[in-house]
Amino acid sequence: MNSKKKMNIIDQLKKRSVKRFSLFFAISFVFLIISKLSNDYKQTIKLKVNLVGFEDEILLKNDSSNYIIAYVEAKGFALVPLMFKNSKVLQVNAKKDVTVKSNHFIFDVQKHKFLIESQLGNSYDLVSVLPDTLLISYSKRASKKVPITLKQTINYAVGYDLKGDFKFDTDSVKIVGAASEVNKINTITTEDLVLKDINSKINKSLKLDISDYQNIEIFPKSIMVSAEVARFTEGTVDIPLTITHQPNNVTINYFPKTVSISYYVDLENYNAVNASDFKVECDYAELEENQTYLVPKVVNKPDFVKHINIKQKRIDFIKL
């Protein structure tokens, strides 16, 4: 019995010794790794040059040679991530970091070592870089600016309407692509602005529609559209007629001498409407053979009124 107890005690001691040894071994290994990673090492890093800030017309060629090899010195800790991906991205500004030639950008690598150091960070000391100069090839596409046409399907609430005009945050957009395609385009249309029962200000972001064109890019790709919506009411006013282009040897008598005009105006400007702001004319030169009536047209009106309607569609006359 005593012999069995002794064997159990010995087994327990052996197990505890193995656990202690494993623990000490693991701790020693961790300290060894930390010690190694605390040392300085030298290594090469592949830097992919990412050119930014160039004109929309520029098309960079997908050149695998647009890389810089940087030889750096750093602590092991800083180099650990490079074990999984031995490359970084270097941002280069086309407006201030390169020289522009007819078909390529020239990046003076040696001159811009400070740029590389700043983007690598304080953990790395830059020892050397290759090549001394990097050529980034590009081609240039055709471009031009074109106006924007709004496509809209808007239903206003009863008694409300658009006050003034729609406004865009930019008056034109740039289209870029092959010259044969660019030359065909004279305007760019927005996606359809669909709104129902509108009684308040409109402020929407709309994409620009280039689905009918191939290999065309547009800048910007969307615009902000805004408009004032106000309560409107109807007004009427009587306006005297003016006959234009009547021959000197022709005398006519026409009836009526005045016409009644109805119009739509926002409440804020209702009292600002005056009859003198309108002008209605009948053009005698537009008469067809044997026609016995003139057609009245509004040729002047206040800018803020809309939906003009002349109640008398024809003016009868006789020659004297």
From TrEMBL:
The keyword Iron does not apply. Keywords: Membrane, Transmembrane, Transmembrane helix. InterPro entries: c-di-AMP_regulator, YbbR. It comes from the Bacteria. The chain crosses the membrane at residues 21-38. The keyword Magnesium does not apply. PANTHER family: CDAA REGULATORY PROTEIN CDAR (PTHR37804:SF1). This is YbbR-like protein. It comes from Winogradskyella eximia.
